[in-house]
Design goal:
- With about 325 residues, the protein is α/β, with parallel strands linked by helices.
- Helices cover about 30% and strands about 20% of the residues.
- It has a single domain, classed as 3-Layer(aba) Sandwich (Rossmann fold).
- It has seven helices and nine strands.
- Helix 3 links the parallel strand 6 and strand 7.
- It is globular and about 50 Å long.
- The relative contact order is 0.18.
Length: about 325
């Protein structure tokens, strides 16, 4: 019998995940390939689902419930461009008081339902002074400033290894696909490092200066636990940050949740067309584009999103030696 995690109440995490999966399967007759976790202002992506089925979190056994205004609480199942998807509209955060392992729960459930690839999104503050409100940032890496890890405690081998590698926490193949499609369509896509802070207080100007010097381009209070968990259980990850505001100290004005939420909604409206076109648009095959036209994009989605191909260096999904993705990371000059 697997060891029970002492940080979780009985029944064990594995038993809770199984109960949630059984409950969902009783309501949904579909095996999803792609999972989405939608942050503030990005719930509109789920509106594109065909044959959508919605299950409120409170109807799923043991599922953590969000207490934050602006975060919906439901799983939505459906198809996008023929790809079977499950979407989390709303997430829980560490600052809400949940144990860190509780933030891993939804990802393990989605993995158990069948997903191979996960798209995470969030609303974030712009640390990079070149970023503007409404920009969309492709997450190339993250910095965990939460002071904890969702995998702390006895490892459950049925989910993944004790020491998962994070050298390629965000799929480089999918990053390349995002950038090629954005370039083909003439749409601006930022790229950078996301830093996760504990919250719920917003960062101080001194903390933002620190994050800038550490190489962060955007800051928020989520996403990192989900990405760590996804990598633990073998899910390919790609991520987007919607820049909703300039981080503290960059502009001479205070931040409030209401203003950030309003800014997120406005920024989402600005970014909606771009994100939708990147992810869901049918690109005209007759355009003569030598990169990612419709057939190639669809093939890449089937390979990278539907089948969840990892980023192997040795052809078998294993990293040879210590990998440093310096060629994929843009260094931000110190403030």
């Amino acid at each position: 019998m697997s060891m029970l995690n002492p940080h979780l109440p009985s029944p064990s995490l594995a038993e809770q995940v199984d109960a949630a999966i059984k409950s969902i399967k009783a309501k949904v007759d579909m095996v999803p390939d792609l999972g989405l976790i939608l942050g503030s202002g990005l719930g509109f992506l789920a509106d594109h689902f065909e044959d959508a089925i919605t299950i409120p979190y409170q109807d799923i056994p043991h599922f953590p419930l969000s207490t934050i205004v602006g975060h919906e609480g439901s799983m939505v199942f459906g198809t996008l461009e023929g790809i079977k998807c499950v979407c989390m509209k709303g997430r829980v955060h560490y600052y809400e008081g949940y144990p860190m392992a509780r933030l891993a729960f939804p990802v393990y459930v989605m993995r158990g339902l069948g997903i191979n690839t996960l798209l995470v999104t969030n609303a974030a503050g712009g640390v990079n002074p070149e970023f503007n409100v409404g920009d969309v940032m492709l997450i190339e890496d993250h910095i965990n400033m939460l002071g904890d890890n969702p995998l702390r405690g006895p490892n459950l081998e049925q989910f993944g290894p004790r020491f998962p590698d994070m050298s390629y926490g965000y799929s480089q193949k999918l990053m390349k696909l995002w950038e090629e499609e954005a370039d083909f369509m003439g749409l601006e896509l930022r790229r950078g490092v996301y830093a996760a802070m504990l919250g719920p207080s917003y960062e101080t100007p001194a903390e933002i200066r620190m994050l800038h010097r550490l190489g962060a381009d955007a800051v928020g209070m989520s996403t990192v636990p989900e990405v760590i968990t996804a990598n633990h259980c073998g899910i390919t990850v790609t991520g987007l940050s919607l820049i909703t505001n300039k981080a503290a100290g960059i502009l001479d004005q205070p931040l409030t949740h209401e203003e950030v939420k309003e800014a997120a909604e406005q920024a989402a409206e600005q970014a909606a067309e771009r994100v939708e076109r990147w992810e869901f648009a049918q690109v005209d095959q007759s355009a003569g584009h030598g990169g990612v036209h419709q057939a190639a994009a669809q093939h890449a989605r089937l390979d990278g999103l539907e089948r969840g191909v990892r980023d192997p260096l040795d052809g078998h999904g294993h990293v040879q030696g210590v990998a440093v993705a310096g060629d994929a990371r843009r260094t931000v000059p110190a403030a």
